[in-house]
Amino acid sequence: MELKEKFNAFFVKCFNNILKNEKEMLRGIDKTLSLTEIHVIEAIFNAKENNTSKNVAETLRVSPGTLTTSVNTLCHKGYVIKEKDPEDKRLSRLSLTEKGIRANEVHARFHEAMIDSILKNSDEKEAEVLVSALEKIQGFLGDFNFEN
């Protein structure tokens, strides 16, 4: 197998394994919670005081309508609170309930365990090379624009 095929096989397998393991992790939180919803919860948590619907949608790179659908479901499930900004009624502010905070903590522990498992088997030089390679991939994915 040539190098290009090995890279492709690795990334497909790695991505699928991350998704599979995240789904398993979600079973321990709430069987009705989707990967999309846990990532919305994470984005709301990370938004801190810049927690407008618009900012969270931009962070997730989704439309405001798509975010609204997820947020409404998460409000109904008891993970998120959506309130009008007291100073600017045009803005909606998003925050997590205690249940949402707990879900985010479980998700964060999953990511931490994944990173710890990589770092415990790598020396500093290997870790630096890996970060450099992953930054290149992130740059490509961040700028990616598929045109036929």
Describe the overall structure.
The protein is mainly alpha-helical. The protein has six helices and two strands; from the N terminus they run ααααββαα. The protein has a two-stranded antiparallel ribbon. A hairpin with a 7-residue loop joins strand 1 (80-84) and strand 2. The longest helix is centred in the first third of the chain and has 25 residues, at 3-27.
Keywords:
single chain, 148 residues, mainly alpha, Arc Repressor Mutant, subunit A, two-stranded antiparallel sheet, 6 helices, 7% strand, globular
Name the CATH superfamily classification.
Winged helix-like DNA-binding domain superfamily/Winged helix DNA-binding domain
Poorly predicted runs: none
Number of E-state strands: 2
User: How many whole angstroms does the radius of gyration measure?
Assistant: 18 Å
Our count of domains comes out at: 1
Could you say which overall geometry the principal axes of the C-alpha atoms support? globular
Helix/strand structural class: mainly alpha
Using the 3D structure, state the CATH architecture: Orthogonal Bundle
Strand content: 5-15%
Helix content: 55-70%
Instruction: Tell me the strand order in the biggest sheet.
Output: 1-2
CATH structural fold name: Arc Repressor Mutant, subunit A
Whole-Å distance between the termini? 28 Å
In short:
The chain is 70% helix and 7% strand. The chain is mainly alpha-helical and 148 residues long.
